[in-house]
Amino acid sequence: MITENGLNANYRHFKNSLHHILDIEDQRDTVTRIVNGVLFGLIILNAVAVVVESTPQPEVVYQWLARFENFSLWIFLIEYILRIWVCNENKQFAHPITGRLRYMITPLAIIDLITILPFLLQLVGINISMLRILRTLRLLKFARLVRYSKAYLFIKVAILSRKDEFLIGFFLMMVTLLIASSLMYLAEHDAQPKLFSSIPAAFWWGVITFTSVGYGDVYPVTTLGKIIGGFFAIVGISVFALPTAILTTAMLEQIHIERDSKK
Question: Are residues 122 and 63 in the same domain?
Fold first, then answer.
């Protein structure tokens, strides 16, 4: 006869095991690999379905795509509910109410909700013209693939290990952008009052110049403006490349640590 304590123990064990499976805490576990492999495959197939759906196809193809979409969305809805249920197995979301609410506003949980939002609206009988447009939100499922990527774990650890350097790099980028935009405003305002109407307006020139995009819709025409623009275009290459260098170094360190741990 199963006692109440035994039922509670089984319940706790099942909930904890499900949490480990959904959070991929043990990639060597067969059940974890199967469950997350199925979810991974559904995400890829849904992305393919979105692309195929946008092209001219026989009506029967659209019907099969609709059936596959409904099947997938039921799976993703169940997965979303289960993730909310087991999330408080994580100490970060331990409280049964506030913990779950905090989990629901995490980036990946928000993406999970957004991707099934049109489906949820249809389930409660809300039929609006925007639903067809909202269906393209299924492409956001690609962002969910980070759960299954080892590279994501490297990037996450790398960023956290270099967060101070990233903050300094970001601050340096903003200061450089502010100085460049201010000087460009002073040099170009009289010649181009509409394009360089204010320092915030000059920020657009600064962003597209520093990122080497250069759309060509905003550019200096005065001699002083060209000198300032050329100087900060060169400076911007090194300043805006700084976070990339920091991230690359941090990721290489994590790779070396991973390799050393396996030896």
Answer: yes
CATH number at residue 225: 1.10.287.70
Residues 6+ apart with CB under 8 A from 122: 131
For the chain, the domain total comes to 2
Give the CA radius of gyration of the chain: 25
Q: Could you tell me if 55 and 105 lie in one domain?
A: yes
- pLDDT for 61: 86
What is the token pair recorded at 45?
């197939």
Tell me if residue 126 falls in helix, strand or coil. Answer: coil
Task: Give 182's pLDDT tier (boundaries 50, 70, 90).
Answer: very high
Note the pLDDT tens digit of each residue in 63-92. 898 888 889 889 989 999 999 999 988 888
pTM, 2 dp: 0.62
